[in-house]
Design a protein that fits this description.
Elements: H1 2-39, H2 67-70, E1 79-90, E2 95-106, E3 119-128, E4 133-141, E5 147-150, E6 155-158, E7 161-165, E8 173-178, E9 182-190, E10 195-196, E11 202-204, E12 212-229, E13 232-247, E14 257-265, E15 270-278, E16 282-290, E17 296-299, E18 305-313, E19 319-328, E20 333-339, E21 345-346, E22 352-361, E23 365-372
Antiparallel strand pairs: 1-2, 1-13, 2-3, 3-4, 5-6, 6-7, 7-8, 8-9, 9-12, 10-12, 11-12, 12-13, 14-15, 14-23, 15-16, 16-17, 18-19, 19-20, 20-22, 21-22, 22-23
Amino acid sequence: MISRLKHPVKKWLFLSLFFLLILGGTTQHWEKDLAAQELGNGTLPVIKEGEGKAVYEPVLPDITINVGKDFNEHPNYHHEVWHYKANVKGDDGREYGIQWTMYRISNGDYQGVGWKNAQIYIAQAVVSTEDQSWSQQRISRGGIGQAGVLMDPLRMWIDDWLWKSNNNFSMPSQLQVKADDFSIDLTSASYGPFVLNGDKGYKKTHDLLSTASYFFSAPFLKTKGVLMLNGKEVNVQGLAWLDKEWGNHLIASNTLRWDAFSIHLKDGRALALTQYHHPQKIRYIIGTLSSKDGSVIDIDNDDIHLYPLETYPLLNGKILPLRWVIEIPKYKISLITQFYNKEMWLPYWVPSWEGPILVTGSQTGVGFIQLMGY
């Protein structure tokens, strides 16, 4: 009699363990799907806490930017982005572009805990060569440990994708990304100062419009590490750039799109430019020309001529301006950009074309272009 009872007990234990394993394996995917559903198909719904629409902190001038403090997240603002780009060369002799972007998007103006947390995180990682690219996106919600930002020291993560530093200034740092068919393990260190873009970190999209953001950069970075691409290991090293920006209008829309350039010039300077496109074909350009000795030149709309030289059709049918002319006569800069790989459209929740470039002209250099809102 006793021996007959053992079999159903074992069966019950086996089924219980099997159910727990299945539940544990699917919970993470269910949470990701829920976060993706909340983001919606290209629009971000606002979850209401009580009555009324979400109201975020305004972006105002004369705010003091503290780099060590402001690498942290600012949940009272709608959007936030940490954006890393690297132009590196592998021990196989090939040139590689590496991108890692993490967005924080508030789904409401309240500060909840756990499942009531209003923050959603989106990360994109990309590796590219002149004829191939690897990319993946992760989406997670805040408040439940899957994604977030911590300080003392700085740590940003989404699932097992991790940016970590031994201080709050992001440098030196390590970036670790593991995706289906590629991985990134890079260590970056600075060889020059941080740069406050715009008016001491206050970046306007137009003189006559209220849309603005807070923005600073670490353009003087050296990086080295290991890429794993389709099972093959490549040791790489080169130059990198990290941007940090927060505000309420960092996602392209029907009324705002932009072209952003991050360029390391041969003479050691770093050139950052953003051209905003507003309705009625109104354009506005803002930029900085910085040196590793700490000198920074603000480039305003009247200083620069920036225009596309050629457009190119992509496999997805889009026709994009991928070759550009940059002229800043006041500082004797005349450049033409050239992409490595034109098929760099990222069809993710925050879609964009972004890829590494070469520049020629008054001097040479390397960098990145990002086209948002096309």
